[in-house]
Request: fold
Amino acid sequence: MNKPEIKYCKNCTSVSSSAIPLEFNEEGICSGCETNEEKNDVNWERRRRLFENLIDDYRSLDANYDCIIPVSGGKDSYWQIHLIKEYGLNPLLVTYHGNNYTEVGVQNLINMREVFNVDHIFYTPSIDLLKKMNRTCQRLMGDMNWHAHAGIFTYPVRVAVEKKIPLMVWGEHGFMDLGGMHSYKDLVEFTYRYRHEHCLRGYEWSDIIEASKEYEDEIFEREMIQWKYPADEEIEEVGVRGIFISNFFKWDANEHGPLMKEKYGFKEADFEFERTYRKMSNLDDMHENGIHDYMKWIKFGYGRATDHTTKDIRSGIMTRKEGIEVIKKMDSVKPKDIYRWLKYVGWTEEEFDYVADTFRDPRVWWIKKGKWWKNNIWGTPSEYGKVYLKKEEQKKYYQE
Reply:
């Protein structure tokens, strides 16, 4: 059995084991880089006019809201509201609150409503339910934050149906922006299929209920109402439609942050993250840049430092060589926020490490002398810590 081989983009730092759809051309350039280049060929003035014509059809004539903007309170949320308000629309902001906000993230969330003078509603699940979902989803899929992905891509749609507000304004299409899942020629919109197959990893509320019984951490259907996507008939009756701003305006998060700081007082983190150098990203969840991203490293062999360097290389503010040095320092770090999460859900670190090991991708990882190994973007394989799997569970990994 051969050791696993992974491929890296010749232009950025994207890897073939990516958690999002990604392909490579004959020159070894990834689909994310190819799609990013399309931005230079788009007639953005024409796209702006398309956007203006589109929103004119949704301006409310009866004092209702013109649209819904799902927001976390981050720099991109600010930019979406800034743009929508510039066109004179009256948005309703909708937030799923997963109980993990950083202090600065909460400040940005409160400030956002005030500086834009907009209405804002939240859904905040009970703490007991969140703990059960954290444990269940970590065991089921290796993602303790599934509840948050499902929440932001479900609850605002439910609000759109309940309040009969058809237009939903999302930011960038994440899988397209990072991996080139679609072309900029496609003008894709938000769909249930995209939500289910990609954002939610193919799981639904019913899967969580069944898994919780197996893990003796039972969750009941009545607790999962806000994660239930509306029926097709409900969507059609209201005419709910989700558009991505990145299809109409050239998206560059590196420009959004400084502009939102200057105009509206958006704050970046006043502390350093362990797994990324960016201080403006994911402030709505203290674990997103930490233990949640560490699980991506465990599963697929890369992390947020890879994602962020990839974007910055494409934007021209970092070289690939510089990006690789960042990845060397950050991608494999086991973050300290894991101890907050372990206390939160009542697990030991060894229990976490064992569950995490069951999600290692054999396309990436192999075992050698009781340690995990993988190939790296800088060309030589490295050892990355103790194996917690039982002997009978190690068979699918290359051993030497």
Observations:
- The beta strands are 67-70, 91-96, 119-123, 167-170, 241-244, 365-368, 371-374, 382-386.
- Residues 31-40+269-393 form one domain.
